[in-house]
Amino acid sequence: MEWLSFLKQYIQGPRWIGAIAPSSKYLAAKMVKDIAFDRASCIVEYGPGTGVFTEMLLANMQPGTVLILIENNARFCQLLRKKYGHLPNVHIIHDSAVHVDQHIQQYGLDKVDYIVSGLPFASLPAEVSLDILSKSRQYLKQDGKFITFQYTLLKRGLLKQFFENVSMTRVYRNLPPAYVFSCSQ
């Protein structure tokens, strides 16, 4: 059911969805591998879609950790609210990740520990990507990480413009196969 919803949203807006199917559990596992859940007080997720990464984050988070989900797609946001809206410390926001600064401040935070991104930087307008990455770097704690995945290596250089350390892992068990980038300062 969620798979069909995802495909429909992709057909309606491929530039903003970026994939024909939700991410696999294998990709989700690689996306959260570098997170020190025992020390994370706040995690932000951009573009959670149907919640594949969100599930993995929630399964590993400590009880006091704040999770901010920023989803630009109205249908996905509605789905996320149904699934997670009742959970404490989970904030579901229907907006663009471009406004991450406003939402971090809205919850009285200065910095966040991790940002997990499902955004398709390869298909987003350049100015949107630059704005999101700039704010992500600005609001990450010094030892924080920005973790994203892409289907190509095209945006690796862009990530390196904002983060000194960019490590990469290939995940073949996903449709299509993907690269996970773990970025830090």
Automatic annotation (TrEMBL):
Q: Does the keyword Ion transport apply?
A: no
Q: Which Pfam families match?
A: RrnaAD
Q: Name one GO biological process term.
A: methylation
A GO molecular function assigned to this protein is: methyltransferase activity
* InterPro entries found in the cross-reference section: KsgA/Erm, SAM-dependent_MTases_sf
Q: Which UniProt keywords apply?
A: Methyltransferase, RNA-binding, S-adenosyl-L-methionine, Transferase
Entry protein name: Methyltransferase
